[in-house]
Amino acid sequence: MDYTTQGAVSPGAKARFEALQRDLVLQFRDQFPDPLAPKTVVIVPSNTLDPEILGKIEGVNHYEERMLALLLLLRMPRTHVIFVSSIPINDVIIDYYLHLLPGITTSHARARLTLLSCYDASPRALIEKVLARPRLIEKIKSHIPPHHVAHMAGFNITYLEHELALQLGVPLYGCSAELAHLGSKSGGREVFRRAGLMVPPGFEHLKNMYEVRLALAELKREHPELRKAVVKLNDGFSGEGNAVINLDAAVDLHHDDMLRQHLRMVAKDMTYDVFSEKMELMGGVVEGFVDGAVKSSPSVQVRINPLKQIEVVSTHDQVLGGESGQVYLGATFPADPGYVHEVGKMGYQVAEVLSKEGVIGRFGVDFISVKEPQGWWKHYAIEINLRKGGTTHPFLMLKFLTNGYYDHHTGNYYMPNGQTRYYFSTDCLQSNAYKGLTPEDLIDITICNNIQYDDTTQEGVMFHLMGALSEHGKLGMVCIGSSPERAKEYYRKTVEVLDRETGGSEKDRMDGHC
């Protein structure tokens, strides 16, 4: 292999990879703008993230299905898609996406779609499974037509994705693994300062729990008014790599056992010892917990294309839960009108810094925003996700279904007819009562209750994560409406319908982790 998880081991690997990436620039300039250009997109939706933290998420193998939103690329009649997954995806789920393609018959789209599976439900990352199967790699290559340009898309990019790109001979559309440090918790704080943004008081580049303890003591000394602090692993995600400490309760911050006694992990079943080991492996940061009477968690999604052009793709207000509101549960789109312009502008400032470093692809920036008594908002930049995330697939669904665009200057999403659209999305609707429901059952229930997405009104509910429904009672959805209120009403109605059909109630639902 040319690459390992740590980087290049072959002298020529980096040069060959850079040559592939130069080809992506040409593709973006010449073929991407033409909907009739023959091209193939190889989608390998591997969640190549910390396996122990991923293991805390129920139905995590099915999270690969979130990138089925990219099947809507098949609306371009000369585009082929190759989708690789850990386990086979139910045909009913595939048909569910394809029937929504505007102006394209299901059979026409299906003929240009290749579904390949590793038939491997183990907890390893999908990319590891693919690289362990040379025959599967050859099969992927054989399904790329010889006259097509091709590129590979993933959820996040590591050196293993670099390796597969080299073996396939296609470029990667995403942030190079060499720049991943910019999206770590420590790297993000440095980028924010370069972009001129405010960050919570704290310390980065901590190497172990001893340094964490010293940082907490110094943080409390410098900011005696702080009541709580957050300890974050550099490569944690969705809040699952975080821990919260009550600084008032932990009186003696210099005592060795203080952290073990008072640190509360966000991830379910994460022990202090495991967290400590990961801190030594990844490093991390300590930040003051941002408090306020009126507080929200906006995010902005930005794209830097291969030509280095910056686009503010979307803004959201995140719905957070778990320990002290650290876990991502869902989002509303767009962000609050009171600060939507500010958030978009700050995302653009971050993109300008990252573009100079060579970053391409989609990424998200998260904030904690506090409303001051005078009525204005104070925004603290919290983290950068140099990958696709929980707000990526909902927006892709909206865009592909409605063929509209987000104008970050007005903070509105416009369709070709000039109407606006809004949505509420979640990956985490979960109930014990929903276990045993199949994708067929779900589709039948939504059709009979008239809540499915309707392309004539361009409103309704679009589901994802349907593969996790029967075993885990868990699914995701994007509820699209002509107003924020209608979008949330679709969500409430959907939950009401599912509870009625399954005999469930609020007590059966769980605060699922995304």
Description:
- This protein is of the alpha+beta class and 514 residues long.
- The chain has helices at 13-30, 51-54, 91-98, 106-110, 126-131, 134-142, 159-168, 185-194, 209-222, 258-262, 272-282, 340-357, 392-402, 439-448, 469-472, 484-502, and strands at 3-4, 7-8, 39-44, 79-85, 113-117, 149-154, 202-206, 228-233, 242-246, 264-265, 284-288, 295-296, 298-304, 310-321, 327-333, 361-371, 377-385, 405-407, 412-414, 422-430, 460-464, 474-481.
- It has 4 domains: 3-173, no CATH class; 201-288, no CATH class; 291-418, D-amino Acid Aminotransferase, Chain A, domain 1; 421-514, Alpha-Beta Plaits, CATH 3.30.70.
- It contains 16 helices and 22 strands.
Strand and helix map with partners:
Blueprint: E1 3-4, E2 7-8, H1 13-30, E3 39-44, H2 51-54, E4 79-85, H3 91-98, H4 106-110, E5 113-117, H5 126-131, H6 134-142, E6 149-154, H7 159-168, H8 185-194, E7 202-206, H9 209-222, E8 228-233, E9 242-246, H10 258-262, E10 264-265, H11 272-282, E11 284-288, E12 295-296, E13 298-304, E14 310-321, E15 327-333, H12 340-357, E16 361-371, E17 377-385, H13 392-402, E18 405-407, E19 412-414, E20 422-430, H14 439-448, E21 460-464, H15 469-472, E22 474-481, H16 484-502
